[in-house]
Amino acid sequence: MAGSLLGQDSGSTAAVTVIKRALELESESRYPQALVCYQEGIDLLLQVLKGTKDVTKKSNLRKRISDYMDRAENIKKYLDQEKEAGKYHKQIKIEENATGFSYESLFQEYLNETVTEVWIEDPYIRHTHQLYNFLRFCEMLVKGQCKIKTIHLLTSLDEGSGKEQQSSGLEEIRESLRNHGVQLELEYSSLIHDREIRFNNGWMIKIGRGLDYFKKPQSRFSLGYCDFDLRPCHETTVDIFHNKHTKKI
């Protein structure tokens, strides 16, 4: 058992809880989540090890940590193989009114320094709040650790009264990006329905509602108006895939 060699202090209790969760997730084949829990649990166990004086307990704890490290390494190798084979799939379900799902929270894990190009397919970058969503997404790319050079946007053209607003808004965003050394390539299609985002490091994210999954704030001065980690969300599903041969939209 995960807790058989540990005491009852808060650090030990936390380590046992996280390791037990890692074992459960592994048994359910939820490997990405299991890997995160193993890593957190191992860090907690190493802290417990530092505070352990008994030689026998220390030796047994080292062995237990080594076993968990082996399990974590095996999971990591498996996930790497899945990514190479284009079979990696992780799903995140955002519940109605859930918070903590800003673009930074959702995408940063997949935006490393190798990302220089992004393809976005979203038919609804039309209305004011949707244009602001796209702008926030661009801001995240520009200020992140990735070295973004080109953003490709494929969206549908507003044929109604909002056509001029859509056109002028996207042109303003394009000009602003240009000032930061980033090129925005715009393309319109009346046939698109899917919503997906691709990075040139192989990651692809499909969001059921596209970038427009945030609810309207209660007022201009309510929490979540500026910080989107505090903004309630509409219910949607996020599917994350990896393919080393990322096709262009």
From TrEMBL:
UniProt organism field: Balaenoptera acutorostrata
A single cellular component GO annotation: midbody
Gene3D superfamilies: MITD, C-terminal phospholipase D-like domain (3.30.870.30), Phosphotransferase system, lactose/cellobiose-type IIA subunit (1.20.58.80)
Domain named MIT: residues: 8-86
Any GO BP annotation: cell division
Listed name of the protein: MIT domain-containing protein 1
Coiled coil: none
Pfam families, A to Z: MIT (PF04212), MIT_C (PF16565)
Membrane-traversing stretches: none
Domain of life: Eukaryota
